[in-house]
Specification:
The protein has 368 residues and is an alpha/beta fold. The chain is 42% helix and 20% strand. Bound molecules: iron/sulfur cluster (SF4).
Length: 368
Amino acid sequence: MSDIGDLKIEALSEDARPKTRKLVLRDVEIGAGAPVSVQSMTKCPTTDVDAVIAKTRELQAAGCQIIRVAVPDEAAAEAVGDITKRSPIPVVADIHLDHKLALTVIEGGVDCVRINPGNMKRDQHLKAVADAAKSAGIPIRIGINSGSLEQSLLRMYGGPTPQAMVQSAILCINKFESWGFQDLKLSMKSHDVTDTVDAYLTISQITSYPLHLGITASGSGRTAIIKSAIGIGSLLLQGIGDTIRVSLADDSLAEVEVAIEILRVLGLRPRGVEFVACPTCGRCKVDLLAHLETVKSKLSGLEADITIAVMGCVVNGPGEARQADIGIAFADDGTANLFRKGKRYASGAAEIAINRLIWDVKQTVRDV
Ligand code: SF4
Protein backbone atom coordinates (compact mmCIF):
# COMPACT_ATOMS: atom_id res chain seq x y z
CA MET A 1 0.00 0.00 0.00
CA SER A 2 1.32 3.51 -0.78
CA ASP A 3 0.41 6.83 0.86
CA ILE A 4 -0.04 10.03 -1.12
CA GLY A 5 -1.22 12.53 1.45
CA ASP A 6 -4.60 11.23 2.60
CA LEU A 7 -4.92 8.97 -0.41
CA LYS A 8 -4.16 5.31 0.18
CA ILE A 9 -3.70 3.15 -2.90
CA GLU A 10 -3.62 -0.61 -2.64
CA ALA A 11 -1.52 -2.40 -5.21
CA LEU A 12 -3.01 -5.47 -6.89
CA SER A 13 -0.83 -8.51 -6.79
CA GLU A 14 -1.33 -12.17 -7.64
CA ASP A 15 -1.52 -12.84 -3.89
CA ALA A 16 -4.53 -10.53 -3.75
CA ARG A 17 -6.58 -12.84 -5.98
CA PRO A 18 -9.62 -14.22 -4.16
CA LYS A 19 -8.98 -17.82 -3.17
CA THR A 20 -10.96 -20.34 -5.15
CA ARG A 21 -11.19 -24.04 -4.36
CA LYS A 22 -8.13 -26.06 -5.25
CA LEU A 23 -8.10 -28.60 -8.08
CA VAL A 24 -5.18 -30.66 -9.28
CA LEU A 25 -4.77 -32.02 -12.80
CA ARG A 26 -1.75 -34.30 -12.56
CA ASP A 27 0.94 -31.85 -11.42
CA VAL A 28 -0.94 -28.68 -12.42
CA GLU A 29 -2.60 -26.93 -9.50
CA ILE A 30 -5.65 -24.81 -10.29
CA GLY A 31 -7.27 -22.33 -7.94
CA ALA A 32 -6.47 -21.49 -4.31
CA GLY A 33 -3.93 -18.90 -5.44
CA ALA A 34 -1.98 -21.20 -7.78
CA PRO A 35 -0.43 -19.42 -10.79
CA VAL A 36 -2.88 -18.90 -13.64
CA SER A 37 -2.40 -21.79 -16.05
CA VAL A 38 -2.58 -21.75 -19.84
CA GLN A 39 -4.75 -24.12 -21.84
CA SER A 40 -5.29 -24.73 -25.52
CA MET A 41 -7.01 -27.23 -27.80
CA THR A 42 -5.74 -29.44 -30.55
CA LYS A 43 -7.55 -28.95 -33.84
CA CYS A 44 -6.68 -32.12 -35.74
CA PRO A 45 -8.94 -35.20 -35.50
CA THR A 46 -8.62 -36.67 -32.01
CA THR A 47 -8.37 -40.12 -33.57
CA ASP A 48 -5.02 -39.08 -35.07
CA VAL A 49 -3.19 -39.71 -31.81
CA ASP A 50 0.30 -39.11 -33.19
CA ALA A 51 -0.73 -35.70 -34.53
CA VAL A 52 -2.42 -34.77 -31.24
CA ILE A 53 0.69 -35.71 -29.26
CA ALA A 54 3.06 -33.90 -31.64
CA LYS A 55 0.96 -30.74 -31.39
CA THR A 56 0.68 -31.08 -27.61
CA ARG A 57 4.47 -31.26 -27.30
CA GLU A 58 4.84 -28.19 -29.51
CA LEU A 59 2.29 -26.30 -27.40
CA GLN A 60 3.91 -27.42 -24.16
CA ALA A 61 7.24 -26.04 -25.36
CA ALA A 62 5.49 -22.69 -25.93
CA GLY A 63 4.06 -22.67 -22.39
CA CYS A 64 0.78 -24.61 -22.64
CA GLN A 65 0.07 -26.52 -19.42
CA ILE A 66 -3.26 -28.23 -20.12
CA ILE A 67 -4.51 -29.56 -23.45
CA ARG A 68 -8.14 -30.12 -24.44
CA VAL A 69 -9.27 -32.46 -27.17
CA ALA A 70 -12.66 -32.67 -28.86
CA VAL A 71 -14.55 -35.93 -28.42
CA PRO A 72 -17.22 -36.00 -31.14
CA ASP A 73 -17.75 -39.77 -31.25
CA GLU A 74 -16.86 -43.13 -29.73
CA ALA A 75 -13.69 -43.53 -31.84
CA ALA A 76 -12.38 -40.22 -30.49
CA ALA A 77 -13.38 -41.23 -26.96
CA GLU A 78 -11.39 -44.45 -27.32
CA ALA A 79 -8.37 -42.48 -28.61
CA VAL A 80 -8.37 -40.22 -25.53
CA GLY A 81 -7.03 -43.07 -23.38
CA ASP A 82 -3.94 -43.35 -25.55
CA ILE A 83 -3.57 -39.59 -25.75
CA THR A 84 -3.72 -39.24 -21.97
CA LYS A 85 -1.04 -41.91 -21.49
CA ARG A 86 1.31 -40.24 -23.98
CA SER A 87 0.58 -36.58 -23.30
CA PRO A 88 3.24 -34.71 -21.32
CA ILE A 89 0.56 -32.42 -19.88
CA PRO A 90 -2.93 -33.05 -18.44
CA VAL A 91 -5.68 -33.81 -20.94
CA VAL A 92 -9.24 -32.47 -20.81
CA ALA A 93 -11.85 -34.27 -22.89
CA ASP A 94 -14.42 -31.95 -24.46
CA ILE A 95 -17.78 -33.73 -24.37
CA HIS A 96 -21.08 -32.55 -25.80
CA LEU A 97 -24.47 -34.18 -26.28
CA ASP A 98 -23.61 -37.79 -25.41
CA HIS A 99 -22.79 -38.58 -21.79
CA LYS A 100 -21.58 -42.07 -22.76
CA LEU A 101 -18.55 -40.47 -24.39
CA ALA A 102 -17.69 -38.93 -21.01
CA LEU A 103 -17.97 -42.33 -19.36
CA THR A 104 -15.62 -43.83 -21.98
CA VAL A 105 -12.90 -41.19 -21.55
CA ILE A 106 -13.10 -41.37 -17.76
CA GLU A 107 -12.66 -45.12 -17.95
CA GLY A 108 -9.68 -44.49 -20.25
CA GLY A 109 -7.98 -42.39 -17.56
CA VAL A 110 -8.48 -38.83 -18.83
CA ASP A 111 -7.43 -36.05 -16.41
CA CYS A 112 -10.58 -33.91 -16.64
CA VAL A 113 -13.88 -33.81 -18.49
CA ARG A 114 -15.59 -30.71 -19.85
CA ILE A 115 -19.35 -30.98 -20.22
CA ASN A 116 -21.91 -28.47 -21.42
CA PRO A 117 -25.17 -28.49 -19.44
CA GLY A 118 -26.91 -26.77 -22.35
CA ASN A 119 -26.65 -29.89 -24.46
CA MET A 120 -26.47 -32.67 -21.86
CA LYS A 121 -29.87 -32.23 -20.39
CA ARG A 122 -30.89 -35.40 -18.57
CA ASP A 123 -30.10 -35.40 -14.88
CA GLN A 124 -29.46 -39.14 -14.80
CA HIS A 125 -26.84 -38.70 -17.53
CA LEU A 126 -25.10 -35.86 -15.69
CA LYS A 127 -25.22 -37.87 -12.48
CA ALA A 128 -23.66 -40.88 -14.20
CA VAL A 129 -20.78 -38.63 -15.32
CA ALA A 130 -20.45 -37.13 -11.82
CA ASP A 131 -20.37 -40.60 -10.23
CA ALA A 132 -17.75 -41.86 -12.70
CA ALA A 133 -15.56 -38.76 -12.26
CA LYS A 134 -15.81 -39.10 -8.48
CA SER A 135 -14.72 -42.73 -8.61
CA ALA A 136 -11.81 -41.80 -10.89
CA GLY A 137 -10.88 -38.80 -8.72
CA ILE A 138 -10.94 -36.30 -11.57
CA PRO A 139 -12.55 -32.85 -11.85
CA ILE A 140 -15.26 -31.75 -14.24
CA ARG A 141 -15.48 -28.42 -16.00
CA ILE A 142 -18.97 -27.05 -16.41
CA GLY A 143 -18.58 -25.16 -19.65
CA ILE A 144 -21.37 -22.63 -20.09
CA ASN A 145 -21.47 -21.30 -23.63
CA SER A 146 -23.79 -18.55 -24.82
CA GLY A 147 -24.28 -20.42 -28.08
CA SER A 148 -25.74 -23.52 -26.45
CA LEU A 149 -27.78 -22.43 -23.43
CA GLU A 150 -30.87 -24.32 -22.34
CA GLN A 151 -33.99 -23.29 -24.33
CA SER A 152 -35.91 -22.65 -21.11
CA LEU A 153 -33.30 -20.11 -19.97
CA LEU A 154 -33.21 -18.43 -23.37
CA ARG A 155 -36.98 -17.97 -23.17
CA MET A 156 -36.86 -16.80 -19.56
CA TYR A 157 -34.10 -14.21 -20.13
CA GLY A 158 -34.98 -13.29 -23.71
CA GLY A 159 -31.66 -14.54 -25.09
CA PRO A 160 -28.16 -15.63 -24.08
CA THR A 161 -27.68 -12.86 -21.52
CA PRO A 162 -25.03 -12.95 -18.78
CA GLN A 163 -27.86 -13.63 -16.30
CA ALA A 164 -29.00 -16.64 -18.33
CA MET A 165 -25.42 -17.96 -18.40
CA VAL A 166 -25.04 -17.53 -14.65
CA GLN A 167 -28.40 -19.19 -14.04
CA SER A 168 -27.36 -22.15 -16.20
CA ALA A 169 -24.17 -22.53 -14.18
CA ILE A 170 -25.98 -22.31 -10.84
CA LEU A 171 -28.58 -24.90 -11.83
CA CYS A 172 -25.80 -27.28 -12.89
CA ILE A 173 -23.67 -26.64 -9.79
CA ASN A 174 -26.68 -27.32 -7.56
CA LYS A 175 -27.21 -30.68 -9.24
CA PHE A 176 -23.57 -31.75 -8.90
CA GLU A 177 -23.45 -30.62 -5.27
CA SER A 178 -26.65 -32.56 -4.51
CA TRP A 179 -24.83 -35.65 -5.83
CA GLY A 180 -21.86 -34.94 -3.56
CA PHE A 181 -19.55 -33.75 -6.36
CA GLN A 182 -17.60 -30.53 -5.84
CA ASP A 183 -14.43 -30.91 -7.92
CA LEU A 184 -15.81 -28.42 -10.39
CA LYS A 185 -14.34 -25.75 -12.57
CA LEU A 186 -16.52 -23.23 -14.41
CA SER A 187 -16.35 -21.32 -17.64
CA MET A 188 -18.86 -18.71 -18.86
CA LYS A 189 -17.97 -18.00 -22.47
CA SER A 190 -19.59 -15.75 -25.03
CA HIS A 191 -18.28 -14.12 -28.20
CA ASP A 192 -19.30 -10.81 -26.63
CA VAL A 193 -16.62 -9.39 -24.35
CA THR A 194 -18.98 -7.36 -22.15
CA ASP A 195 -21.39 -10.28 -21.65
CA THR A 196 -18.51 -12.62 -20.87
CA VAL A 197 -16.98 -10.27 -18.31
CA ASP A 198 -20.39 -9.62 -16.70
CA ALA A 199 -21.08 -13.34 -16.41
CA TYR A 200 -17.68 -14.08 -14.84
CA LEU A 201 -17.92 -11.13 -12.44
CA THR A 202 -21.33 -12.33 -11.24
CA ILE A 203 -20.44 -16.00 -10.87
CA SER A 204 -17.18 -15.13 -9.07
CA GLN A 205 -19.25 -13.44 -6.36
CA ILE A 206 -21.59 -16.41 -5.97
CA THR A 207 -19.24 -19.40 -5.95
CA SER A 208 -15.65 -20.21 -5.07
CA TYR A 209 -15.13 -22.78 -7.82
CA PRO A 210 -12.06 -22.15 -10.00
CA LEU A 211 -12.81 -20.21 -13.17
CA HIS A 212 -11.49 -21.00 -16.63
CA LEU A 213 -11.50 -17.76 -18.67
CA GLY A 214 -11.94 -17.23 -22.37
CA ILE A 215 -13.80 -15.36 -25.08
CA THR A 216 -15.31 -17.97 -27.34
CA ALA A 217 -15.54 -17.69 -31.11
CA SER A 218 -13.51 -14.49 -31.01
CA GLY A 219 -12.54 -14.87 -34.67
CA SER A 220 -9.07 -14.37 -36.07
CA GLY A 221 -6.33 -11.79 -36.35
CA ARG A 222 -6.02 -8.52 -34.54
CA THR A 223 -9.68 -8.23 -33.50
CA ALA A 224 -9.70 -11.69 -31.93
CA ILE A 225 -6.51 -10.98 -30.01
CA ILE A 226 -7.82 -7.65 -28.76
CA LYS A 227 -11.13 -9.20 -27.68
CA SER A 228 -9.33 -11.95 -25.77
CA ALA A 229 -6.82 -9.57 -24.23
CA ILE A 230 -9.51 -7.19 -23.01
CA GLY A 231 -11.90 -9.88 -21.80
CA ILE A 232 -9.38 -12.15 -20.11
CA GLY A 233 -7.10 -9.30 -19.06
CA SER A 234 -9.81 -7.21 -17.42
CA LEU A 235 -10.93 -10.18 -15.33
CA LEU A 236 -7.40 -11.16 -14.35
CA LEU A 237 -6.74 -7.55 -13.32
CA GLN A 238 -9.61 -7.87 -10.89
CA GLY A 239 -8.14 -11.04 -9.48
CA ILE A 240 -10.64 -13.31 -11.25
CA GLY A 241 -9.57 -16.40 -13.17
CA ASP A 242 -7.52 -19.52 -12.53
CA THR A 243 -6.89 -20.85 -16.03
CA ILE A 244 -7.15 -19.21 -19.44
CA ARG A 245 -7.57 -20.17 -23.06
CA VAL A 246 -7.31 -17.72 -25.92
CA SER A 247 -9.66 -19.12 -28.58
CA LEU A 248 -8.50 -18.11 -32.03
CA ALA A 249 -9.50 -19.20 -35.51
CA ASP A 250 -5.80 -19.87 -36.02
CA ASP A 251 -3.09 -22.36 -35.14
CA SER A 252 -3.21 -23.41 -31.47
CA LEU A 253 0.37 -22.18 -31.14
CA ALA A 254 -0.89 -18.62 -31.69
CA GLU A 255 -3.45 -19.20 -28.90
CA VAL A 256 -0.70 -20.16 -26.46
CA GLU A 257 1.61 -17.33 -27.51
CA VAL A 258 -1.13 -14.74 -27.00
CA ALA A 259 -2.13 -16.28 -23.66
CA ILE A 260 1.44 -16.17 -22.38
CA GLU A 261 1.76 -12.57 -23.57
CA ILE A 262 -1.41 -11.59 -21.68
CA LEU A 263 0.01 -13.14 -18.50
CA ARG A 264 3.40 -11.47 -19.08
CA VAL A 265 1.88 -8.05 -19.59
CA LEU A 266 -0.07 -8.45 -16.35
CA GLY A 267 3.03 -9.57 -14.47
CA LEU A 268 1.60 -13.07 -13.94
CA ARG A 269 4.51 -14.67 -15.82
CA PRO A 270 8.17 -13.62 -15.96
CA ARG A 271 8.24 -10.64 -18.28
CA GLY A 272 11.23 -11.83 -20.31
CA VAL A 273 12.74 -9.19 -22.56
CA GLU A 274 10.40 -6.22 -22.60
CA PHE A 275 10.90 -3.29 -24.95
CA VAL A 276 9.62 0.11 -23.95
CA ALA A 277 9.47 2.38 -26.99
CA CYS A 278 7.62 5.60 -27.61
CA PRO A 279 5.16 5.82 -30.51
CA THR A 280 7.20 8.74 -31.96
CA CYS A 281 5.69 12.05 -32.98
CA GLY A 282 6.63 15.25 -34.78
CA ARG A 283 9.39 15.92 -32.24
CA CYS A 284 11.33 12.79 -33.12
CA LYS A 285 14.47 13.55 -35.14
CA VAL A 286 15.65 9.95 -35.67
CA ASP A 287 14.21 6.90 -37.42
CA LEU A 288 13.18 5.36 -34.12
CA LEU A 289 11.37 2.38 -35.61
CA ALA A 290 14.51 1.40 -37.53
CA HIS A 291 16.63 1.75 -34.38
CA LEU A 292 14.10 -0.31 -32.41
CA GLU A 293 14.11 -3.06 -35.04
CA THR A 294 17.94 -3.09 -35.00
CA VAL A 295 17.98 -3.50 -31.21
CA LYS A 296 15.27 -6.18 -31.28
CA SER A 297 16.91 -8.21 -34.03
CA LYS A 298 20.39 -8.00 -32.47
CA LEU A 299 18.96 -9.12 -29.12
CA SER A 300 16.52 -11.76 -30.38
CA GLY A 301 16.76 -15.02 -28.49
CA LEU A 302 17.98 -13.29 -25.35
CA GLU A 303 16.73 -15.17 -22.30
CA ALA A 304 16.44 -12.78 -19.38
CA ASP A 305 13.95 -10.68 -17.48
CA ILE A 306 15.06 -7.25 -18.59
CA THR A 307 13.34 -4.03 -19.66
CA ILE A 308 14.99 -2.08 -22.46
CA ALA A 309 13.83 1.42 -23.37
CA VAL A 310 14.31 2.94 -26.83
CA MET A 311 12.93 6.49 -26.75
CA GLY A 312 12.64 9.19 -29.40
CA CYS A 313 13.41 12.51 -27.73
CA VAL A 314 14.22 14.40 -24.55
CA VAL A 315 10.56 14.91 -23.53
CA ASN A 316 9.76 11.47 -22.15
CA GLY A 317 12.90 9.68 -23.24
CA PRO A 318 15.20 10.18 -20.24
CA GLY A 319 12.35 9.45 -17.79
CA GLU A 320 11.36 6.17 -19.44
CA ALA A 321 14.97 5.15 -20.01
CA ARG A 322 15.74 5.75 -16.33
CA GLN A 323 12.83 3.53 -15.30
CA ALA A 324 14.02 0.67 -17.53
CA ASP A 325 16.89 -1.66 -16.63
CA ILE A 326 18.78 -0.11 -19.49
CA GLY A 327 17.74 2.40 -22.12
CA ILE A 328 18.57 4.95 -24.74
CA ALA A 329 16.99 8.36 -25.27
CA PHE A 330 17.77 10.19 -28.48
CA ALA A 331 18.28 13.96 -28.51
CA ASP A 332 17.58 16.59 -31.17
CA ASP A 333 21.22 17.07 -32.16
CA GLY A 334 22.03 13.57 -33.47
CA THR A 335 23.29 12.31 -30.13
CA ALA A 336 21.80 9.96 -27.56
CA ASN A 337 22.09 9.33 -23.82
CA LEU A 338 22.33 5.89 -22.29
CA PHE A 339 20.78 5.05 -18.93
CA ARG A 340 21.19 2.09 -16.62
CA LYS A 341 19.21 1.53 -13.42
CA GLY A 342 18.06 5.13 -13.19
CA LYS A 343 21.37 6.83 -14.03
CA ARG A 344 22.81 8.29 -17.19
CA TYR A 345 26.09 6.49 -17.81
CA ALA A 346 27.13 7.39 -21.34
CA SER A 347 26.33 9.60 -24.31
CA GLY A 348 27.51 9.98 -27.89
CA ALA A 349 26.55 9.98 -31.53
CA ALA A 350 23.25 8.14 -32.10
CA GLU A 351 24.64 5.29 -34.25
CA ILE A 352 27.48 4.61 -31.84
CA ALA A 353 25.17 4.82 -28.82
CA ILE A 354 22.79 2.23 -30.29
CA ASN A 355 25.64 -0.27 -30.76
CA ARG A 356 26.86 0.48 -27.24
CA LEU A 357 23.35 -0.18 -25.89
CA ILE A 358 23.22 -3.58 -27.60
CA TRP A 359 26.68 -4.50 -26.31
CA ASP A 360 25.84 -3.33 -22.77
CA VAL A 361 22.56 -5.29 -22.69
CA LYS A 362 24.42 -8.48 -23.62
CA GLN A 363 27.04 -7.71 -21.01
CA THR A 364 24.39 -7.04 -18.36
CA VAL A 365 22.61 -10.31 -19.07
CA ARG A 366 25.91 -12.24 -19.00
CA ASP A 367 26.81 -10.72 -15.64
CA VAL A 368 23.48 -11.55 -13.96
S1 SF4 B 1 9.32 10.61 -26.38
FE1 SF4 B 1 9.47 12.39 -27.67
S2 SF4 B 1 9.42 11.59 -29.75
FE2 SF4 B 1 8.63 9.96 -28.43
S3 SF4 B 1 6.44 10.30 -28.49
FE3 SF4 B 1 7.22 11.35 -26.67
S4 SF4 B 1 7.53 13.45 -27.37
FE4 SF4 B 1 7.33 12.18 -29.22
